[in-house]
Amino acid sequence: MTLVDITEERGVTTLALDSPATRNALSTHLVTELADALTACGKDPAVRAVVLTHTGGTFSAGADLKAPPSPYAFVDLLRQLVELPKPVVGHVTGHVRAGGLGLLGACDVVVAGEAADFALTEVRIGVAPAVISLTLLPKLDQRAAARYYLTGERFGVPEAVAMGLVTAGAEALPGILDGLRAGSPQGLREAKRLVTARVLETFERDAEDLVQRSATLFASAEAREGMTAFLERRDPEWRL
C-alpha cells in the first residue's frame, strides 16, 4: 500500500501524505516511503522544488503509537528535509499535531489554509516534543514555544504565523511556486544552505541527546499510562 502520493507539475513535485485512515500518523512505513520519495526528488535534475502536503483532513497526527518509527529514523527524515538540495514548501489545509509540526519546522516555507490548526500534544500523553525541537526551536518565538510546549493548547493560523511556524496563508502558494520556478537550481540550493545552516548546527549539537531523551520518556510509566489513556479514549490518571 502506497502512503505517499506523488504528482509533478512544471518542475514542482508534490508529495502528499496519503494515509487518511490513520490521520497520516508517522508510522515506520510512512516515514520510510517519504524518505525514499525525497531521495528521488533530490537526485532528479528536473525537480526544482518539492511541496509536502496531505490528503484528508489531517496533515499528520504525529507518531503512530501502534507502529512508530525509531527516533533515529525520524531524525534522519527531518534532517533530510532540511538538507535536501531543493526548496521544500509545506502546504497544510487541516489539523497538525505533535510530530507533524516537526515536519513543518523542517520545511523551508509553510503555507496554511484557514481551516488548519496546530497543537503540540506530547505533554498530554506523558512525553515532550524532544526530537522535533531540532527543527522547531531554532525557528519559533521562544515565548510562544514555551506556551504551546507546556499547555498542549490548539492554535490557529494567525498564531502559527506570528510565532514563525507558518510563512503565509495558502493563497500565497501559487506566487511562491512561481518564484521558485524562476530561481536557478544552483541559486536555490546555495540560498537554502544559508538559511538552514543554524538548524543543521542544532542537529550536530543536540540530535543524540534528544533521541535518548525521547526514548527514555516513551519507556516511562507515565508515558505508558498516557498512551493507554489516549488509545482507550479516557483521561490519564494525572488529569485534575
From TrEMBL:
Can you tell which superkingdom this protein's organism belongs to? Bacteria
Identify the Pfam families for this entry.
ECH_1 (PF00378)
Q: Which organism is it from?
A: Streptomyces gardneri
What Gene3D superfamilies would the database entry show?
Answer: 2-enoyl-CoA Hydratase, Chain A, domain 1, Lyase 2-enoyl-coa Hydratase, Chain A, domain 2
Enumerate the GO terms in the molecular function aspect: catalytic activity
Report what the protein is called: Enoyl-CoA hydratase
Checking CDD domains in the record gives: crotonase-like (cd06558)
Residues crossing the lipid bilayer are none
